[in-house]
Amino acid sequence: xxxxxxxxxxxxxxxxxxxxDNVISSLCFEKEYYEKPLLENSQEIVFSGxxxxxxxxxxDDDVLEATISNGKIKIKTKKKGFVFLVVKDNMDNTSxxxxxxxxxRYLSLRLANPIPNNSYYKKGDCLFLVNDENRSFYLCDExxxxxxxxxxxxxxxxxxxxxxxxxxxxxxxYDISNSSYSFLWSAIPIYLGFSWINxxxxxxxxxxxxxxxxxxERGTGNxxxxxxxxxxxxxxxxx
Length: 239
Description:
Blueprint: H1 2-22, E1 28-29, E2 33-37, E3 43-48, E4 54-58, E5 64-69, E6 72-77, E7 81-89, E8 94-103, E9 106-112, E10 126-130, E11 136-140, E12 146-157, E13 160-167, E14 171-175, H2 181-192, E15 212-217, E16 223-228
Parallel strand pairs: 2-8
Antiparallel strand pairs: 1-3, 3-6, 4-7, 5-6, 7-8, 9-10, 9-16, 10-11, 11-12, 12-13, 13-14, 14-15, 15-16
Protein name: BIG2 domain-containing protein
């Protein structure tokens, strides 16, 4: 009798584990709302759960296209606007709806060490240069709180690659000629839609280096090092 009870208990335990392995968890997204920049390359939204039988519907194909597989939604943005994505699990006939806003593309530049004494910038600051009609910039602190906003200009000044930042409180002018080659000739054209006049004038940019901006402040000579970052601009800032 004791052996029979032991066999029954073991059978229940094995059956329970087997059943748990076959349970399909519900679809789960990190957020219900996303903002994605208008880029030529595809972007991803990761999710968890769901079966292997998923489908996706886009409320407006003119704004973006989307496909789904292997725990990722791949999107191809086409123009600015709002869309709803309905992700359906055909196995149990459940669905999850998320909202996406396509915004202007932008560069995220995170401040790196060393930082000059009495610097306007602080450790962890992130500078966002936006490819919009006004050439807007936004400066956020390490916690992504907005510190300042204004406009920027890219231009040549006596064969030097230059960046200016204008806000209600400050005007900054930088020589960015010592930035990496990939930043000047790849990141800026791709993300900001700006092209320098003549590539032959490049003589100080660093060809084999991480993608980053070296900004020498005119007047003070202070040098700031920014590296290309993947930080998203805080939601709700861009129209």
